[in-house]
Write a structure and sequence with these properties.
Helix content is 55%, strand content 9%. The chain has eight helices and four strands, in the order H-E-H-H-E-H-E-H-E-H-H-H. The strands form two sheets. Strands 1-2 form a two-stranded parallel ribbon. Helix 1 packs parallel to helix 3. 15% of the residues are buried.
Length: 160
């Protein structure tokens, strides 16, 4: 974790780049200070980031619902929660996070871990001589990956 001064300088640089470039960017300012430096320092950094022009804040790894609620009460603007099943922050459903005051939540490993588990189960099934767990129909798979729309466009231009 970088010092407070450097963390603030990074946010100032992002805000300046947005203004100087005329870009329509949202600045999400993250701090990982909670673990090594404590909740007070992490909250202060979030407040400073907002004062410097960050649009959103992300306090990584609050340890309890009370810490999560406090961050939402004490830091202005939209806030992001990061939900990892094996993380330090208590896992919450989107509605519970909204009630606490979070604007958005990331569940970064849910789909990845579920798909890896499905692949493992399928490979184990193949090794045993079956297709493994229930699978999507080929038609649904084609639709999910966009082939239905692709074929419609091909027909539209007489390319099939």
């Amino acid at each position: 974790v970088v010092g407070r001064e450097e963390a603030c300088a990074r946010i100032r640089a992002a805000v300046d780049a947005r203004q100087e470039g005329g870009e329509d960017l949202v600045i999400l300012a993250r701090t990982d200070a909670r673990g090594p430096l404590g909740l007070e320092e992490a909250l202060e950094r979030c407040r400073l980031f907002r004062a410097l022009g960050a649009d959103w804040t992300f306090l990584e790894a609050p340890l309890s619902l009370q810490e999560m609620a406090r961050a939402c009460r004490e830091v202005g603007g939209p806030k992001m929660a990061n939900m990892l099943g094996s993380g330090l922050t208590p896992l919450q459903a989107p509605e519970a996070l909204r009630a606490l005051g979070f604007s958005v939540a990331a569940y970064p490993l849910v789909l990845l871990t579920a798909s890896c588990k499905a692949m493992q189960d399928s490979l184990e099934g193949l090794a045993k001589g079956s297709e493994g767990p229930e699978q999507l129909s080929f038609e649904l798979l084609q639709d999910l990956v966009g082939f239905t729309e692709y074929y419609r466009e091909m027909d539209r231009y007489g390319l099939q």
